[in-house]
Amino acid sequence: MTQPVSLGECKKLEKVELHAHLNGSISIATIGKLLKIEGRSNIVIPTDFVLKQPTTMEEVFKMFPLIQKLTEKPENLRIAVEDVMREFEEDGVVYLELRTTPKCTEFMSKKEYVDVILEAIRRLEDRRKMKTRLILSIDRRQNIEEAEETAKIAIDDDSGLIVGIELSGNPILDGTKFIPTLQKARNSNLGISIHLAEVEENTQEIMDFLIFRPDRIGHGTFLHKNSEFVRIMRDLRIPLEICLTSNTLCKTTKTIAESHLPFWKDLGIPIAICTDDKGLMNDCNLSEEFEKASVNFGFSKRDLENICKTSFDISFFSRRDKKL
Ligand code: 6MZ
């Protein structure tokens, strides 16, 4: 039996992060920093705000609105983006695809929210080795007009930094009404990633989205439990973004050892290992996720290097900007 790859070795790998929600990726340290700043101003943060490590999917979804309050102002959003980018780079990430839901706040329009992030990416990209691209999220709770507005921002963007659109949010809610909007984005060469089969319900939605054939699937935790979905995945080979710690904390997989990752890897489906919401998931990082994959699935250093390479191959990096 070979030794698992150590955390130190995992840290040195040139990693690619494809599934990181901005507001879920804000570290506990940055949340503390923002709470301190906001203590001196008027933003409405519940007085009983406590950052709790969630232990179920429901708790995760209760935390988001609280954290999102902290990034309602441009200056705070800037701090959050810069800290998240710095933390990923310090962990050895060379390419980051950050995703976020554009929000209209008291202080910014949706477009201004996106512009603050793009400006931070541009500024830091000059100084850093890590490349960062942005994916705009549609939240399942939104209506079609809101989704269209987000898609329009991505389609009209001429910075080359917005490379995709994704669908996320509470997985219990059906997202198929967004398919025409997603198709429009796809026609403009934006990459499309869909959170799919994160819970066992919604089999019709899963089927409709498999037929739509997104470029990537987020989580896909329950896909392997249905033989028809497995048959379609074998044919279409849609890449999966798998978030080991997130799945176990949300209790959609019992243990990492029981994750769906090896099932799909053995079938030759392209896999990216990702963090999802590192701030909410025990302040985890991508190196630890790689180490866990090595410990639980017996992956060698070569296997992990191949996952880094595959992740870049399935990234949306070259969707709108061919220069690296
Ligand atoms: C589904 C998730 C998610 O967009 O404000 N989000 N959606 N499943 C998950 N797994 C646990 N984790 C995060 O980041 C927070 C938003 O990302 C989505 C949710 O819509 C959440 O409101 P932004 O930067």
Automatic annotation (TrEMBL):
InterPro entries tied to this protein = A_deaminase_dom, Ado/ade_deaminase, Metal_Hydrolase
Which family is it part of? Answer: Belongs to the metallo-dependent hydrolases superfamily. Adenosine and AMP deaminases family.
Entry-linked CDD domains: ADA_AMPD
Name the record gives this protein: Adenosine deaminase domain-containing protein
Which Gene Ontology BP annotations are present? Answer: adenosine catabolic process; inosine biosynthetic process; nucleotide metabolic process
Q: What are the names of the required cofactors?
A: Zn(2+)
What this protein catalyses is: N(6)-methyl-AMP + H2O + H(+) = IMP + methylamine
Q: Where is the Adenosine deaminase domain?
A: 15-323
Keywords, A to Z?
A: Hydrolase, Metal-binding, Nucleotide metabolism, Zinc
Tell me, what is one Gene Ontology molecular-function annotation carried by this entry?
metal ion binding
